[in-house]
Amino acid sequence: MIGIRAYNSGVRYGVDRSIDFLVDGVTIKKSDVVIIAEERLDQEYKTAIAQHDERLIELRMLPFHYPFLFLKNLKGTSKVDIWAALWNTLLDVCPLKHYVVYNDFTDLSTVRNGVLGQRGCQTWFYTHACNVANRFVHTLKDIPPKYILNCQILHYDHLIAWNRQIANHYIKCGGKFRNVHVVGCLWGQCNNGVRLTRTTKEGQ
User: Fold this and answer.
1) d(CA 197, CA 183)
2) Based on the number of CB atoms within 10 Å of its own CB, is 103 exposed (0-12), middle (13-18) or buried (19 or more)?
3) What are the pLDDT digits (tens) for 80-118?
């Protein structure tokens, strides 16, 4: 099962950009995918997910749907403990093999990825050219410190990037990725059936 992170300000459904762009109906089917809401989604987004006949799991609702599982997984009362318990509960009811995020710089992503890694789930970080807006051509001293801190919390099994410059940018800023995949532009009809064009280990 593949989980895809959904958030209100992220990619939704469109002609050229869609949250479920990995679903091709052949290699990956709708039945292979679950949309994971890490925050409260607005009703318009939830309705669109339902209209596209895709399964949605809202993390915040898990303690109400599976109270005993959640309490079993809860090891403390801190924000980190609660977040870890939510993800362990989700994996108990929906064992994920892969979890895909798109430009996720949230602090608790490290907690989530730690739980996913312990449970045997591969994590994938997708990015695009616009997200770094020419910053990858500058030296580290030209990049805002807050942006570097955002990159330093990125710990993933896989980085998916448009080109090698962008991949190197994230690594230069402190991101940790076990594998780097350069695939070209993710959007548009020209990407139908795209395959990984290059795969490298971190630092190579």
Assistant:
1) 5
2) middle
3) 999 999 999 999 999 999 999 988 888 899 999 999 999
Sign of CA dihedral 118, 120, 122, 123: negative
**What pLDDT does 9 receive?**
82
Is pTM beyond 0.90? Reply is no
| Residues 93 and 66: beta-carbon distance below 8 Å | yes
Q: Which domains does the chain have, with CATH numbers?
A: 2-201 (3.40.50)
CA 90 – CA 65 distance, rounded (Å): 11
Nearest Cα neighbor of 56 from 69, 71, 68, 41 is 41
Phi and psi of 98, rounded to 5°? -145, 145
